Amino acid sequence: MALPSSREELKEYCLRRLGKPVIDINVDDEQLEDRIDEAIAYYRDYHFDGTEHVYYRHQVTSSDVSNGYITVPESIIGVTGCFVVGSTYSVNNLFNVRYQIHLNDLYDMLLQSVVPYTMAMEHVNLLEEIFVGKQPIRYNRHNDRVYVDTDWSEKIGAGKYLILDCYQVIDPDVYTDMYADRWLLRYICALFKKQWGENLKKFEGLQMPGGITFNGQKIWEEATEEINSLEEEMIVSYSLPVHDMIG
Question: Are 67 and 162 contained in the same domain?
């Protein structure tokens, strides 16, 4: 059979890897669903392919202005910035700095160098950063709210747009290729195996007909060792490096 492309196929693939149907895997379907959810959550938090970099656009409403925040979808787990709200560049008239430089210094792009223009723009950015600054934002993934610390009625206002620089989780039901990820397959199998051992540990030492005894502890220990190894592999091989913070 090909690699799984749905949740049910993923479940059956992992159960067959553990021995089904030759061996009866003593795990309830709800337990399997819980372990899959745990694995996907871990994958999204640490694997570089678990999220994607997106720009989220939101049209501000009068309620947003009153609240001082906007509500973002639950799939967004990180907001790193907000496009500048109101700047020198946003003035679309004769007094626009960019227009004035074009008018006086770059009247002929074929004859003039762009170096002075680039330096002038960098200088304008520096002045704006010093004297105006950027609007600070605050965000927590558990309340799905992005607070922009500014005067909403003056700087933003209802009907305007906010553009957020953020990260959004990958939905495996939409991008089904995620179900076939090699690390995720091994991790889910290990979680299934640990749950199987956890269930069998309750009957440790129980003797079955023919002298067979349960050894759930051994299964549990093997699975725990596999999980620890896979999580270490995730941090070393599949997680993006931590950014340095200077303060």
Answer: yes
